[in-house]
Amino acid sequence: MTGVGPYAAVPTATADQTANPAAPVRLGGRLFSANLRQNGIYIAFALIILLFSVLTGGDLLAPQNISNLVVQNSYILILAIGMILIIIAGHIDLSAGSVVAVTGAVSAVLMVNNDVPWPLAILITLICGGLIGAWQGYWVAYFGIPAFIVTLAGMLVFRALTLAVLSNQGIGPFPDAVSTIANGFMPTYLGNIGLGPLDGADLFTLLIGLAFVAGIIVTQWRGRAGRARHGQSVEPTVLFVVKLVIAAVVVMTVIVQLARFKNLPWVLVLLAVLVLAYSLLTDRVVFGRHIYAIGGNLNAATLSGIKVKSVTFWLFVNMGVLAAIAGMVFAGRLNQAGPTAGTGFELDAIAAAFIGGAAVQGGVGRVTGAITGGLMMGVINNGMSLIGAPSEQVMLFKGLVLLAAVAFDVFAKRRAGTAS
Fold first, then answer.
1. pTM
2. How confident is the model at residue 263 (pLDDT cuts 50, 70, 90)?
3. Using 50, 70 and 90 to split pLDDT, how confident is the model at 419?
4. Beta-carbon contacts of residue 142 (< 8 Å; ≥ 6 apart)
């Protein structure tokens, strides 16, 4: 079973590695291929940012534009978290956009038309999303219908339900608390500090950024040390440190720009919590390891005692809940629920997962990769909009990026196979 994650294949140790478990295999072997597959997306993302920064004369990295990038793509990134888990397990979900629409419609009917208190309305909406996921998960996991067919039917059914719930018209505006989650920013707690030519920046936001960077460094360092202790191959220390430095610079650049504008968007805080929670789920929790096992080798997972049907069922329940969150965020951002909401969102989420390193066959992928893939698509949309590119060029570029990402995955697998 091969893959990137808890069930990644471990190369056979050489004599030198037996004496020193932390010693990496040669760069021309599997370690290089694994590093290429894991880090290629981040290299490509950096190159695309650099390209559009030059083409837009630096406007892409302006404080307000970075904030807009986060807010405008937040719902796609939320969907991408659920989609990557579905794809890792070897399935697909074509109904996510329609579930976004119908759950947004339910929340609007509750809050706007029936004056249900917004906390209760949010809870009910999340339950509805979970029930939708359970409905689809039952047909996939226990009845044995392929997820492609079930969710294709769901895409039509839930779009029809959206039209019925909304009576084919928009409903709004939402309560201020809900629209603030989608469009609002954290208040200033500790005041602003001067950053020389960068003007002032919110101190509290900067401290959050520093804490986040410290968390990344500690987590990555401990993970590398753990792999070395268990005799697994690890990348060279120099490469590892360079990666951490680049990640820290990128994160702090974004944080500084946000601190200069209006502080952290609340939706970014929500997204960060979700990314952290699901990263821990996939890396540290047995359920997450079962997802990789199912996608990597279904028969082996079944024979090893993993409850495949149960795991698949709960994956679709989870997808429904995340789609409900995305639906409320999107409706809150527009300040109304509309019958066409969520159109094409499932395609963007699927593209984000594959661009972020997911494998078509399943068993491979990471939450952070899906987030990076979603941001890459967002940067392409935003950058080409800033330079005034027509919509057909935007679609052409995004399609080529998706094709290149999947081709790269196939190439990396073949390289790993010939090196083993």
1. 0.85
2. confident
3. low
4. 309, 313
Q: Which domain holds residue 215?
A: 186-264
Q: Are residues 234 and 257 in the same domain?
A: yes
In a domain, 8, yes or no: no
Q: What is the 3-state secondary structure (H, E, C) of the chain?
A: CCCCCCCCCCCCCCHHHHHCCCCCCCCCCHHHHHHHHHHHHHHHHHHHHHHHHHHCCCHHHCHHHHHHHHHHHHHHHHHHHHHHHHHHCCCCCCCHHHHHHHHHHHHHHHHHHCCCCHHHHHHHHHHHHHHHHHHHHHHHHCCCCCHHHHHHHHHHHHHHHHHHHHCCCCECCCCHHHHHHHHCECCCCCCEEECHHHCEEEHHHHHHHHHHHHHHHHHHHHHHHHHHHCCCCCCCHHHHHHHHHHHHHHHHHHHHHHHHHCCCEHHHHHHHHHHHHHHHHHHHCHHHHHHHHHHHCHHHHHHCCCCHHHHHHHHHHHHHHHHHHHHHHHHHHHCCECCCCCCCHHHHHHHHHHHCCCCCCCCCCCHHHHHHHHHHHHHHHHHHHHCCCCHHHHHHHHHHHHHHHHHHHHHHHHHHHHHC
Q: What is the pLDDT of residues 37-64, one digit of tens each?
A: 566 777 788 888 888 888 888 888 888 8
The Cα–Cα gap between 101 and 327 comes to 6
User: Six-digit token pair at 313?
Assistant: 């069922």
Domain identity same for 364 and 389: yes
Kindly give, in sequence order, each residue whose CB lies less than 8 Å from that of residue 122, ignoring residues fewer than 6 positions away: 107, 178, 328
168 and 219 both lie in a single domain: no
Q: How far apart are CA 31 and CA 21, in angstroms?
A: 14
Q: Which residue has the tokens 């965020």?
A: 329
21 or 341: whose pLDDT is higher? 341
Would residue 21 count as lying in a domain? no
How far, rounded to the nearest angstrom, does the alpha carbon of residue 17 sit from its chain's CA centroid? 35
